[in-house]
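fyi for ur records
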Amino acid sequence: MDTRFDQINSTVENSIFHVVFFPDRIYHAQYLNATRSERYRYNVREVRGQGDISVLKAEVYVDGRRYSNVLRIEYRASRLVEKARQKNRFLRGELLAFVQLLPSDSPAASGTLKLTYCPWIDAYQVELWETLEAPDTQPHDARVLDLMGYEGSITSLPTLRPMLANLADLTRLELAFRENDRDLPFGFSITNPEWDNNYERKIQAPNTNAPSSPSNTIDTLNYLIDFQRGWYIQSSDIAPVRYLNAMMNDADSDRRADNLIEMRWLLQREFGSTVVFFHEVLIPPGMVEGTHQHIGSEELYYIIEGEGIAYMGENDDPATRNFPTVERSIFGFDQPRRCKELPVKPGSIIFTKSGGIHGIRNHGQLPLRFVAFLYHSN
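which gave:
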């Protein structure tokens, strides 16, 4: 890493931002496959991550000369470990990955890659090289050659090779992971492999103005790795998706034929890390978003316009003990729960951790508007 990063962060005016500006993960040479031979060196150009996944765009040099573009995929498999364990299986040393490359100016192409476990990074990994042909100078080093091949940890697929020729144009890729075909080292066939396809991910899109229409819910099923570096968005340019009696049980006393709220889905699959979405919510006067419990996810509301009442689980925040207590119907649960009624206005924050309960009502004369983001807890 450039020593100037240390110098920047040691200054008084910048030290507080250290955690914000910390550079991408530092990749030591021994983490990358071909560096078992001193003839090979990598130039890592860009890194993206999402959950258990890291993807590197890189170049590899042989004998000091640029040789090939490289796309390296790393996967730590925490979710797939749990899914395999439900079938009384271990992941062992190999996994398979579905990869679809999405260039900016040409059709998508896809393929299946084998990932092998690497103790250096405690993850499964594969490097997709533009070519495996012998360098012009001399043949590949034997210590690297034994890694190369169709199912090697250094591989090349003809269907994906054209897109690796210009990594700058490779703006996005989709990934999903599954168990190997064989239960190694025993060799038993796995006929029903488990998949990690991003929690069967769905996104929202304003395909119709009809409230709560299934056509506004889109199955994606894969992780998206996005190499775009920035977004400039006007929320008013994004059409809202409308919901009728959102997150309410059939017997909820707040259900009404006109209880509509709107959500502008500003960012969804674009995020890295474990963030799921960032959106803007509008609740018209007198309308309600149903009270619900978060399991395995956390969400933050920040009120930017209007006034209302937020509901929070009775014991979720000790600081709310002196606010009124009411019973609320909880979406998906048979029995109501005791909740605190909390007044909200511009600048109010409702932060709900996994297991917590929240909902919100507009009791003012103007629209109640807030922004929210949600992420997986683990």
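The first helix runs from residue 4 to 10. thats all i got for now
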